[in-house]
Design a protein that fits this description.
Low-confidence stretches: 1-32, 44-63, 295-302, 312-332, 418-425
CATH topology of the largest domain: Beta Polymerase, domain 2
Number of domains: 4
Mean pLDDT: 76
Strand content: 5-15%
Radius of gyration: 29 Å
């Protein structure tokens, strides 16, 4: 091109990839003739095609027929630079946005702060190339464009949760995503990608939950789907990773034995602290319920299902005499009417802003953040927290078991929140209460839990589980996925976390076998729930509770203990 007003330059930089620059000296697009514009466009296309064929072994989207390009770092680095701009970086930013939107929609109020993305990254070309040269990856290599299908952590996101129960909640949220079928253009989850290193830690002591999401990335030619690895850790385990640089303990690396031993000891200590932190969280949850219900003070015992064992912890006030003295002293001080009025106004404002059914404990927590813990003495003057709500927002519905839910003013009450579970088809009150202690327990309607158990039993019958005393976590994951797929084939909704809970419970009881019937599984789940509820003092009427649980699970009641 000879026109001095148009300059085209193509510059190759071997370290960071290919950069094609088109510089125009025109001050406005309107001064460029159609002929000049066409010349620029054609020249750029010719240069780009020539460079891709010369340096990348073909185009970004098509494999050169009849040959496999030689794997080399120089060629890989150039591919990585182009891929990063075209779809790796767009996938990273889209994944961060979509995960945050998902958490915003699933986690309410202050609990949202328990889940946060700490970092996101695109894996460096040096590290990914090193991984690609290992035998199990190299043998799958056919061309550079196929690398995203070989390496699943080109794009990664680290998500930090406060406690172990938050990890369980995150697993449930992820389990509700649809499984990628190769066509879905929305956030989905890759089949077989769940890896729970909390239950099966790595040899280094690493503990986390990994899952691969599939993220849609819009291109000029259409939408492509990119895998993004999500690593979820607790605060303490993330601290362990930072302190020990777990990433340096990869296969093939050489680390002195004493460093490995010290790192493992630290991981085991932090696991113990994680469990203590979870016990503290459970105790605080119980205390928040007691504040809402205004119970009499005193020591209570809780049995907490941690997933691998059941812990017995004491909650409440250990010195009953001191508590009684403090309460009686506070009761003699009447709160000023101005404070009472401010409390009513703030309560009305908080409830008026609700868009979804919200636990009363969460509303009370928000009020204590505004006024301080002393405000609980003020609402006791109304006769309790629920009475305060009735005064402040008389049109707001309050439903469910203790501590209950408050619903947006004027909004219809969803059937699963109706007061009478047997009328609406929701879960029994004792199941909702037990969820505080057993975070994975499905709080769903009777038909849905019965469908989940039936799907699990079908999946167990179809797999070769004979002879195994206990299922491994991998087997449980495979069976839960199979149960979900069987339910989907019948147009039924069975969430993977619910299927996993049923399988884990049956596995603990040692009754997972191909001959297991739906009735046997349902009876076992009923007795498991009843026993846990009994241990935690949640049963007031044994006969009524047995009847409710039996009706919920679709089995014949038996005489209560």
């Amino acid at each position: 091109m000879s026109d001095p007003q148009v300059m085209l330059s193509a510059r190759l930089t071997s370290d960071i990839g290919i950069e094609i620059e088109a510089l125009s000296a025109f001050k406005g697009a309107q001064t460029m003739s159609a002929r000049q514009y066409l010349q620029v466009h054609c020249e750029l296309s010719r240069i780009q095609t020539s460079l891709q064929n010369t340096y990348l072994g073909g185009s970004m989207s098509e494999k050169q027929p009849g040959s496999t390009p030689q794997l080399s770092y120089e060629a890989y680095a150039r591919w990585h630079a182009v891929a990063e701009t075209r779809y790796l970086e767009p996938a990273r930013s889209a994944a961060v946005r979509l995960i945050n939107e998902l958490l915003d929609s699933k986690v309410q109020g202050v609990d949202r702060g328990r889940f946060r993305i700490s970092t996101s990254r695109i894996k460096s070309p040096q590290r990914t190339y090193s991984k690609l040269t290992r035998d199990k990856y190299r043998e799958k290599f056919t061309d550079y464009d196929g690398i995203p299908g070989i390496i699943d952590d080109l794009v990664g996101i680290r998500l930090i949760c406060n406690n172990l129960s938050d990890i369980t909640t995150l697993q449930e949220i992820m389990g509700e995503l649809s499984i990628d079928d190769g066509e879905t253009n929305s956030l989905s989850i890759q089949s077989d990608s769940h890896r729970n290193y909390f239950e099966n830690p790595k040899e280094s002591g690493y503990r986390a939950y990994h899952v691969n999401l599939v993220v849609p990335v819009t291109q000029a030619s259409g939408v492509i789907r990119m895998r993004v690895e999500v690593q979820a850790r607790t605060l303490l385990q993330d601290g362990w990773g930072e302190l020990t640089h777990e990433d340096t303990y990869k296969p093939g690396s050489t680390v002195p034995p004493w460093i490995v031993t010290m790192s493992l000891r630290m991981a085991e200590l932090l696991e113990a602290v994680d469990n203590i932190a979870q016990d503290l969280r459970t105790g605080l949850d119980i205390e928040s319920q007691r504040v809402v219900e205004d119970p009499s003070p005193g020591e209570e015992t809780a049995f907490v299902n941690t997933g691998s064992s059941t812990l017995k912890i004491a909650v409440g006030d250990s010195n009953e005499g001191e508590v009684q003295a403090d309460v009686s002293g506070a009761a003699s001080e009447q709160p000023p009417s101005e404070i009472r009025n401010l409390l009513v106004e703030e309560t009305r404002r908080q409830v008026s802003n609700l868009t979804d059914p919200t636990p009363l404990a969460l509303v009370s927590q928000r009020l204590t953040e505004v006024f301080g813990n002393e405000i609980t003495k003020v609402w006791s003057e109304f006769g309790g927290f629920k009475k305060l709500l009735e005064v402040a927002v008389p049109l707001a519905a309050i439903t469910g078991p203790a501590p209950g839910y408050v619903h947006p003013v004027g909004a219809p009450v969803p059937e699963d929140f109706a007061v009478g579970w047997n009328v609406s088809g929701g879960a029994p009150d004792v199941v909702r209460l037990l969820r505080t202690f057993d975070k994975g327990l499905p709080v769903i309607s009777g038909p849905r839990v019965q469908q989940a158990i039936a799907a699990v039993v079908e999946a167990v019958a179809s797999e070769n589980t004979e002879g195994a005393e206990r299922l491994s976590i991998t087997q449980i994951e495979v069976l839960s996925r199979a149960a979900r797929e069987r339910a989907q084939a019948r147009a039924q909704l069975v969430l993977r976390p619910h299927a996993m809970y049923i399988l884990r419970t049956l596995n603990r009881l040692g009754i997972v076998r191909p001959s297991l019937t739906t009735e046997q599984a349902s009876l076992a789940i009923r007795d498991w729930v009843y026993t846990n509820a009994y241990q935690n003092g949640l049963i007031e009427d044994p006969s009524a509770t047995q009847a409710e649980l039996s009706s919920w699970l679709g089995v014949t009641p038996r005489k209560a203990r």
